Amino acid sequence: MKSPDRTLDVVIVGAGIAGSALAISLARSGYSVLMLEKSTVHVDRVRGECHGYPNHDVWIDHPVAPGIVLIGDAAGHNDPSGGQGISIALKDARLVSEALNASKNWSPAAFADYAATRREQMNRLRFSVRLLAIYRMEFTATGRERRRRGRERMAADPALALPFVAMQKGPFAVPREAFSQEVWDRLLG
Ligand SMILES: Cc1cc2nc3c(=O)[nH]c(=O)nc-3n(C[C@H](O)[C@H](O)[C@H](O)COP(=O)(O)OP(=O)(O)OC[C@H]3O[C@@H](n4cnc5c(N)ncnc54)[C@H](O)[C@@H]3O)c2cc1C
After folding, report:
1. Per-domain residue ranges for the chain?
2. What is the pTM of this model?
3. How is domain 2-39+55-188 classified at the architecture level of CATH?
4. To test ligand 1's pocket by mutation, which of 41, 44, 45 has the most ligand atoms within 8 angstroms of CB?
5. How far away, in angstroms, is 7 Cα from ligand 1 center?
C-alpha cells in the first residue's frame, strides 16, 4: 500500500493495547507502519459503582484472511470476568510480529500457529470462566450445595482447582487435562 510519500508495509487499525504493541514491535524491526485510531478519547472500561458490562463471549473461528490478521479483542474475547484480556492482546501482538519477521511469505498459512494457539487458549479460558460463573453466580440452594461439594473435592484433590488457577496464571500455565470433561463433571457433579 502507498501513502502519499512512502510505501507502507503494515496498516494497523486500532491503537489499543494489541495494535500499539504490534506497531512498536514492527517499527523496531524496521517495517513502515501506519496506525489508524478512530477515537482521540480514552474510554474508561468501568465507570461508577452501578456500571455493568455483558458477561458474554465473542469469537470467530479463524482470525486470518488474505492481507488481514485480527488480534486482541477484535479476534474475539471471553467473558471479561475471567481476566487475561491484556496478556492475550500482548501475546497476539508478539506472535503476529514473530510470524511477520519469520518470512516474507505473509499468506494466511504463515499465521496458522498464531490462529491455533489463540483458539486453544480461548477454549481453555472459556471452560474456566463458565465454571467461575456457575460457582460464583448461582444463588440457589442447589448452587450452594454444588459449591460446597466442589470445594470439598478441590481440597481433597488440588488438581481440580487448576481451571481457576488458569485465570490468574494464564491458560498455558496449567496442563491441558485441567480442562477435561472429567474435571468439569467432578467439580459440578
Ligand atoms: C469492563 C472490562 C474490564 C476488563 N478488565 C480487565 C482486566 O482486569 N485485566 C485484563 O487483562 N483485561 C481486562 N479487560 C479486557 C481488556 O481491556 C481487553 O482485552 C484489551 O484492552 C484488548 O485490547 P485491544 O487492543 O484488543 O482492544 P482495545 O483496547 O479495545 O483497543 C481497540 C482500539 O481500536 C479502536 N478502533 C475500533 N474500531 C476502529 C476503527 N474502525 N478504526 C479505527 N480505530 C478503531 C478503538 O477506538 C480502540 O482504541 C477488561 C475488559 C472490560 C470490558
Report:
1. 2-39+55-188
2. 0.90
3. 3-Layer(bba) Sandwich (3.50)
4. 45
5. 29
